[in-house]
Write a structure and sequence with these properties.
The protein is α/β, with parallel strands linked by helices. Helix content is 48%, strand content 16%. The chain has a 4-stranded parallel beta sheet with strand order 5-4-6-7.
């Protein structure tokens, strides 16, 4: 080890653990994190520090904590994204090795990394999509970028409010769901807020009255929260159609038998496009977008077009 300043002297143990677990999460989607005791020993921190960091990761949507079932790492990144991350990580290590070979000590290497991070400035956020639900943010960002053909920054509503309040961010346009609109209505008047209607009712997607009661219908959603909400909302449909099931994408990935007898699939368009092999055997598919609001999308396009002309 080259003598000099160590990374753990620059950041707190909890911040260092947070970064190390993010690195693990990106590479190991779908797997389980070791126990808190194991992580505490592995990273030489207290169990309380592990619990604090894992609580933050759960709140930010990186992991799912279940009693007596362990902590599951959510599948947030595609295989392509993971490979890009690993290749980029390797290039950064090569740069550090090059600095070391040129005679730069460890303090200098750390200084170069921190200076580069400080100088790194992403493009100012022009369009922000803010919402309360993690998976809603993932899907909404992709849909908006695909439809509007502009870069969209996604973040939780609370994070947006904090950044605007501290003047760390001043987006031109904030897009949100109709459900989250009341949480951003007090943003400064200089920021245009456009709320969008989200997924239509299930009955609008599928005409259940035309289906036999023994129809094998499966609704695949992204999160446990959506699964629970839809199950509670459509308890009458599930009673009337005993072979109508609601599963999360993670559940189907872990057990493909869940959709082996499905004849009608209802799911987000993004889920179908990103997992074609998982559902290719199903005869009929009904897909929907995160947003179901032609009028709202029209407003967004007009605002961006007008803003572009003024620029």
């Amino acid at each position: 080890m080259i003598p000099g300043l160590k990374i753990d002297q620059l950041v707190t143990r909890s911040k260092l653990l947070y970064a190390k677990l993010i690195d693990r999460i990106i590479q190991c989607g779908g797997e389980k994190l070791p126990t808190s005791d194991h992580l505490a020993r592995e990273h030489q921190v207290s169990v309380n520090t592990v619990k604090e960091v894992c609580g933050r990761l759960a709140k930010e949507g990186y992991i799912r904590q279940k009693k007596r079932a362990g902590t599951e790492i959510r599948n947030l990144y595609s295989e392509e994204q993971v490979q890009v991350y690993l290749r980029s990580r390797e290039k950064i290590i090569q740069v550090f090795n090059h600095l070391k070979e040129s005679g730069i000590n460890e303090s200098g290497i750390i200084a170069s990394a921190l200076s580069a991070l400080e100088e790194y400035r992403p493009e100012p956020a022009r369009v922000v999509y803010a919402d309360k639900d993690f998976y809603g943010l993932v899907v909404g960002k992709k849909e908006l970028e695909s439809i509007l053909k502009v870069k969209v920054t996604s973040m939780f509503v609370d994070e947006l409010r904090e950044k605007v309040a501290t003047e760390a961010m001043a987006p031109e346009l904030v897009v949100t769901s109709l459900w989250s609109a009341p949480l951003v209505e007090d943003l400064p008047d200089t920021i245009r807020v456009i709320p969008l209607k989200t997924t239509p009712p299930l009955e609008q997607l599928l005409d259940f009255s035309s289906l036999p009661t023994d129809a094998r219908i499966t609704l695949v959603v992204l999160s446990d929260q959506v699964q629970q909400r839809v199950t509670a909302t459509h308890a009458d449909l599930m009673d009337a159609y005993p072979f109508f099931h609601i599963h999360t994408l993670a559940q189907v990935r872990m057990n493909k038998e869940l959709v082996s007898e499905t004849t009608t699939l209802v799911t987000l368009r993004m889920i179908l496009l990103e997992n074609p092999g998982l559902f290719s055997h199903i005869p009929k598919t009904v897909t929907y977008n995160r947003f179901h609001d032609d009028e709202g999308m029209g407003m967004l396009k007009r605002f961006l077009a007008q803003d572009g002309e003024e620029g």
